Amino acid sequence: MSEAQRTPFVESLLEAAAQAQLPGSGIGWLDAARRENLEAFAAAGLPDTRMEAWKYTALRALGQRRFEPGDAQAATRAVDDATYALPGVDGPALVFVNGVFRADLSRIDSLPAGLSLLPLSHALNGDAEPLRFALSRHYREGGDAFARLNAALAGDGVVLRVAAGAKVAQAVHLVMIGAAAESDLAWHVRHIVELGEDAELSLVEHHVASGEQQHLGTQVADVVLRKGAQLRHVTLQNSSAGGTLVRHNSVQLDEDAQASLYVLELGGALVRHDLHATLAGDRARMETRGVFVLNGRQHVDTQMALRHQALNTASDSIWRGVADQRSRGVFRGAIVVAPGADGSDASLSSKNLLLSGQAEIDTKPELEIYADEVKAAHGATVGQLDERSLFYLRSRGIPLTEARAILTAAFCRAVFESLDNDALREHLDQQLMAHLPSA
Amino acid sequence: MTTETTDRSDTPATLRDNAEVAAALGRRYEAGFVTDIETDYLPAGLSEDIVRQLSALKKEPEWMTEWRLKAYRHWLTMPMPDWAKLKLAPIDYQSISYYAAPKSAPKSLDEVDPKLLETYDKLGVPLHERAKLAGVAVDAVFDSVSVGTTFRKELAEAGVIFCSMSEAIREHPELVQKYLGSVVPTGDNFFAALNSAVFSDGSFVFVPKGVRCPMELSTYFRINAINTGQFERTLIVCEDDAYVSYLEGCTAPMRDENQLHAAVVELVALERAQIKYSTVQNWYPGDENGVGGIYNFVTKRGDCRGNDSKISWTQVETGSAITWKYPSCVLRGDRSVGEFYSVALTHHRQQADTGTKMIHIGKGTKSKIVSKGISAGRSNNSYRGLVKVEKGAEGARNYTQCDSLLIGKKCGAHTFPYMEVKNPTAIVEHEATTSKISDDQMFYCRSRGIGEEDAVSMIVDGFCKQVFRELPMEFAVEAKKLLEVSLEGAVG
């Protein structure tokens, strides 16, 4: 892309990069990685819909917008802690307001044994070498514009490590708050999470809004589970109705590692979630559960790719979508079984409810299989509530709107059934119910 | 699209597999002979002059020449698509000869070069006798021109027009002008544009109002000459309440070069009309190392224009080095029905990226997709399908079932279904599974004294049954035999 063709979006972010005072600058490899990712972003700009991974998400409107580099007042903005309090989640917490770490809102003073948790900005001031592998990554895929941007501009985030054998009982709460500001901001967070051998962790990733705003948030997270580690990762995305949020999460599972992921997408105007998981060690197991409930003109795009790379690995995915009014829900769930990954067992279900004539659902479950000792299946549906079930409820005196609400809730709630934090599960169900139409 | 190699380090087990596969001779391609007859070529290369020359050679009217030129000019502006999951060497469009015809132009079937007839005999398409016995009317396309259409008279009595495309352009220009390019426009895609510019022949079927075509119509395609491409164009129009069943078969001789086959098939079904289109595709697939073979890049689309119309595609794809096609249905009429039944088998280094598109536009439209993919050797077999429900398609219904069977450890089976739904009363369902022939199944058959290859072919036959029973009987028998031959050496 020549200079003349640069969109306002790319221009404003390049200006931001020129002014940015990022923590860790001066570290040679980090500067180089930031520079190269920025150059790649500047050269390619935003992907268009001709690119397969962005087929259903047009970024033309975003490309015409400008974002201010960062929030100078982020450290002092008043945020009510009720906006992000979650029942059942009272362990250590790290809070970021517009991408900036807020020590005053966080709880990291008395950490349980084996847990190391600190903001990236602090980690970079100490010994940055352990972060080198994650932070010197170059994003080479054409569609990785936001990951490049994040790699170039992220100044904060979480560095979380659980020592081998440590079992952290309390859930760790990561809060990303988009707070109302004087102008539209772009903020970026970068998380690095590592669970040592046989470690256990429960993590809650939480995106919320404080006041109305139309910021752009980007997040890149690398999660690694060493041999035998177990992770439960819950994401509650309830960001500002006008906001744009792009998340790029990678998970790697070594031998015997187990991960359960729960995702509830409620907020945001334009939301994109890339989830890449690699079952890299033998007998690794992964469970993903997700729901999106959309209305207004929301556009939520989830792109999940699970790669089975070792022997006897298993993955099980259940995703539900509800689209009402003029919203659009996009889901891609790809399962790749690499050559030699015998004994893989993969299943995926994507079921969607389309509630309005102006809404749209695009779903694309994929299988890419290169091994023959494999069990792989996927199913996808788009439709509406079952007429017979509605009839059944109505014949028992339940009014139509209520019957619809009951069935819609039941359609989505199955997803969180296996979540073993009761208080949190109930909270997610409530949030879900509150977002469902005509409840 | 990413393309990955499927190579793995050889374990002792795979070494043994290889040895036995090699010992089993790979596949025998029975249609791989060359017929030695004199052929008229156009020089290799493509330009406006070639398009004009081709049009002149075929004594086409002015409007047809212009139509071709328009398509050619459009083609020049188009890039070759690259989104399929295929590994494909660049094609040099200037090295292909776009026209090859047997030198002695036949006046009637009895004047057809006996050698040509022999070729068809070897292929099992005797134009005279067996066609009559079987009651199948055959239009045979040899390289680029149609060499004769049987059963002309019987069909004419019913009012059905079944002739070569060249003849249709001369004899029925009003029909051709009305329908040609109305389903697949000249600029629809790269290969359709190329075909529109240089198509040499093909079949034309017109079934008038209320007529049920008294016999199954059939076309046999064969690429014989070296360094040629085959670009045939088929157009089938069924007027109100008409019905036709159409069969298509394809073969080519064995050669080391890749040959391009870029056909376009257009189907038009008016009110309450039904078209059933069956294909058994057995182009030369290349040898076991992936040398040679046909590139089969075909655009097939049916347009259910009338209410209550129905178009059904059935395909058995065992040949071609690369198959890249998506027979589609545009369900425009209310309550129209689209069906797609497919068996795609790949072996050795064959690649297939095939599937269908069902575009629901009318109210109460229904579609059903049943796809069975079988991969063996080092082949890659992808199903790619689109089900799209537009806003106005109240009560649209789709059911898709897509199963893959893997035979061996070095092949790949992939599924890429796209579902785009814009109407809340629509129901769209997709299911897919991937499996291999289980040891239990094999053990069961073997313990009852069934040989290994027979057991495999029995199991594969069962796997494909849902599709085979959609085929007309003669084709079902051929399809079964083809699978058996194609799978030879796949197990060991």
Task: Kindly list the characteristics that best describe this protein.
heterodimer, A: 439 residues, alpha/beta, 2 domains, 10-stranded mixed sheet, 9-stranded mixed sheet, globular, B: 492 residues, 12 helices, 34% strand, disordered N terminus
Helix content of chain B: 25-40%
Residue share in helix of chain A: 10-25%
Look at the helices and sheets of chain A and give the structural class. alpha/beta
Secondary-structure element string of chain A: HHHEEEHHHEEEEEEEEEEEEEEEEHHH
Number of strands of chain B: 24
Strand numbers in spatial order across the main sheet of chain A = 2-1-5-7-9-11-13-15-17-19
Q: What sort of overall outline of chain B do the alpha carbons produce when their principal axes are compared?
A: globular
Mean pLDDT reading of chain A: 92
Distance between the termini of chain A: 49 Å
The number of helical segments of chain A is 9
Instruction: Please give the domain count of chain A.
Output: 2
